[in-house]
Design goal:
Layout: E1 6-10, H1 18-22, E2 30-34, H2 41-49, H3 65-71, E3 76-79, H4 86-89, E4 95-98, H5 108-114, E5 117-119, H6 126-141, H7 144-153, E6 168-172, H8 176-187, E7 191-196, H9 202-207, E8 210-213, H10 217-220, E9 226-229, H11 243-248, E10 253-257, H12 266-274, E11 278-283, E12 303-305, H13 313-333
Helix pairs in contact: 6-8
């Protein structure tokens, strides 16, 4: 699809690097409309459970009338979120560029019905997220949480940690994030196993010590000291890590989820932490975000929680803008878009 003129509604509230996008319009037929729109974590989480729809009728951000007027003439959208009724809000839309790797919270069915090409930002935060995984993993292996607590209490007590080298890590989903995790695991001298739909992927095969087809995850799990869930949210992965899969994991192993909260049956995870079958769990995502104060996850033993913040914003926006710029130029020249959903 070739477009002669782009009028882009930028809903994602850029904090920096805006000038890089503005430079595109200096000698190219691209206009940007700066119309910030960002939904709450509750609404985004709810949409993620319901194929992008606001079925719970949660409050949506109020959209100023001047934004609504501008959106009517925009044929491209750059956003973290997609407001309800996009057909009415963006009748001329032909391209939607998501500013996140995941898109389960986006009403892809509505975009498809509108004939809109949807692209994601897969890959722009993979390095940062893989760094986060190993920061948390080393925090547990080296007992850094205990050492910090001892420092706070002024207690001098030896806490010898464990070595990562020689341990086996299993990665469920070897996409851009899983690939970066595998690369760093190799640097640490770990044995790397992974599950992937396409086991014929030559680059994936060369990256890991053994690549399992997705349906053989039950064969991989008992071999792993660390299991990282890095697969996208699909119907197949919903509630994937339940009592059965946790029971197959090696006693004393560590579970990490930096993908989507819907992958995990959280009460089962808590149970396996309480029995000590799992040494620890590291969650950057939970089923319902933000986590309520009453949620039992807060008190689960040896659980490392973070509020969906494993990306690094010092590079995130710059990486996103490079991708947005590249796709905008591709759209104008009729080339295939990057990260087409």
């Amino acid at each position: 699809m070739e477009i002669n003129q782009l009028k882009v509604a930028v809903l994602f509230p850029l904090r920096s690097h805006k000038e890089a996008l503005m430079a595109l319009s200096e000698d190219r037929p691209i206009d940007f409309c700066w119309t910030p729109y960002l939904e709450s974590s509750e609404l985004r989480s709810s949409r993620g459970h319901n194929r992008g729809l606001n079925v719970e009728n949660l409050e949506e951000p109020e959209i100023p009338s001047e934004y609504l007027e501008q959106w009517q003439g925009c044929n491209a959208i750059v956003s973290m979120d997609l407001p309800s009724n996009p057909k009415n809000l963006f009748p001329e839309a032909q391209w939607f560029q998501g500013v996140s790797a995941g898109y389960d919270h986006i009403d892809a069915d509505a975009l498809a019905e509108m004939g809109v090409q949807q692209t994601s930002s897969r890959g722009i935060a993979s390095s940062a997220i893989s760094e986060f995984v190993f920061a948390r993993l080393l925090q547990e292996l080296k007992h850094l949480r205990k050492l910090d607590d001892q420092q706070e209490r002024k207690e001098w007590e030896v806490q010898f940690g464990n070595q990562a080298e020689g341990r086996t890590i299993g990665i469920v989903g070897l996409g851009s994030i899983g690939t970066e995790i595998a690369k760093k695991a190799k640097v640490f001298g770990m044995n790397v196993l992974a599950c992937k739909r396409n086991v014929e992927d030559a680059s994936a095969v060369s990256l890991v010590d053994h690549l399992f087809p997705s349906q053989d995850v039950t064969t991989m799990l008992p071999l792993c000291d660390v299991v990282v869930m890095a697969a996208p949210a699909t119907r197949e992965t919903e509630n994937m890590f339940d009592q059965e899969l946790f029971s197959l994991m090696k006693e004393g192993s560590i579970f990490i989820n930096i993908a989507r909260g819907t992958h995990v049956v959280e009460e089962n995870l808590i149970a396996y932490l309480r029995t000590g079958h799992l040494r620890a769990a590291i969650l950057d995502v939970v089923r319902n975000e933000p986590l309520t104060k009453e949620d039992p996850l807060w008190n689960a033993p040896n659980l490392y929680l973070s509020p969906h913040c494993s990306v690094s914003f010092d590079t995130y926006e710059a990486n996103a803008i490079r991708l947005i710029s590249d796709n905008a130029l591709r759209l104008l020249s009729g080339e295939n878009l990057i990260n087409l959903v």
